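Justification of computing resources. Each target in the renewal requires a structure prediction run like the one illustrated here; the chain below, 93 residues long, is used simply to show the kind of job we budget for.
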Amino acid sequence: MDAETRRAAEEHFNRGNQFDENGQREPAIKEWLEAIDLNPEHVGAHFNLGIAYAEEDDAARAIRELREVIRLEPRDTEARRVLAKIHLDADQS
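Resulting structure tokens:
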């Protein structure tokens, strides 16, 4: 991946974070998806999507995104913790 594509992905990721900080979840999700479109290995975008989907009660998508984080960063303990919580919450439902 070239530097320009990587930079564009990072810009989408950062814009998504700004939207999310302002309580605008839908545009944040769109920006994070665009970041992943440009850089499928963008761990931060996958993680943020996982959190967003979990908070939107979309466990299947949250699990998919968090598993991708763990595939890309096997030692990411926060992704593992959130994933475990989603599974526990689903078991208690």
